[in-house]
Amino acid sequence: MSKAFMYKNHPLARIVTIYGIVSADYLQGAYPAIYPHKHPDAWELCYCMQGTITYYKNGQPVTLHSGEIAFASPDTSHDSQSDNPDTTAFLISFTCSHDYIKALKNTVIPVTPRQAQLFCQVISELELAFEPEDRKQRRFHFSPSQNSPVGSEQLICTYLEQILIDILREITNQDGRPIQNKNFPKAMNSFLAANVSAYIRSHIREPLTVEKIAEEFHYSRTWLSTVYKAATGIGINEFLSSQRMDQAKSLLLEGQLTVAQISELLGFSSPQYFSRKFTQTVGCPPSQYVDTLHGTFESPKKP
Fold this sequence. Notes:
single chain, alpha+beta, 6-stranded antiparallel sheet, 3-stranded antiparallel sheet
């Protein structure tokens, strides 16, 4: 007698799970900034469907054009506005598992046609599932509709999860080839490292530290440093130092700031330490750099 075939249950892996929604706005036409606000445990996704939007995160403006989205991570102050009468925007805040989507927080991402269609389905299900507030498609307190079709709330979660997974697939594609599950963590780490590098470049004229960068990306210093070095071959501090030296050279050539002011601007502990590091890297002190570059520096004559 043959043995009975045994089936084994395989639990399906989930990289993104939507738990709930906090707010949802569908906006048309020009609109003013309402008020800066934050969600302690929710992400916000801002989708510029048409026109232009100024999206503020911790007071810093990001311009979104038609077909672009941006994210605000939990506990980030955010707001938006548009002066364009042709603007259509969709903003939704949601709680979710966010181990993988952390890397999206400092990016502006173009929306694919498939994602645009999914967004339309999210908006449609929101209209079916919940009563509007003040006769507008703005919802901050969700009152389920008595006429809601079966499964509307679950479809909202499903469509949002599809959008996020689709975005993760798009940004981790290599040369147009889809990333396999086994290679996905490495691809996401490379994407995160690229975002960290871009953040350093755009904030280099601020007193940056590895701790501050790690806090900005919601990771521990140790973990982020390990991932960055594995992806780029150099440490965050090493890249930060090289970018500081490049900025120091530019600032010296601009001639608007003193060595002490440049040292403070770039986050060095003292002008003396800055001068020492600059000399070690460039081969001459900051005070002589511009003259040396222009060929006007004269070495002290021997007696």
